[in-house]
Amino acid sequence: MLMAHQKRKRTKRYIVLFVVLCLLVVGGIVAYxxxxxxxxxxxxxxxxxxxFLYIPTGSNFEQVCILLTENGLTDISSxxxxxxxxxxxxxxxxGRYRLLNN
Length: 102
Prior knowledge:
mainly alpha; two-stranded antiparallel sheet; 3 helices
């Protein structure tokens, strides 16, 4: 009777350990994907000379997305996600911005 109880206890520990390890792996994968979404290179400039993006006064977020796509933005979905998290769609600022690779 005592041996059966110890086996069940050991089996429960292995199950808990397995579940914790699975959660850690899934959490690591999600964290890596979030990191890639925020910090992965997202601009590709084809020239050696400095390239600038001009955002006219009164431009909205959709217009900025179009301008960026035309000027080397490689992943619009990650840009939109990060911009939304930073509240950029409501705070579009006109001006001249230098575009750098990555």
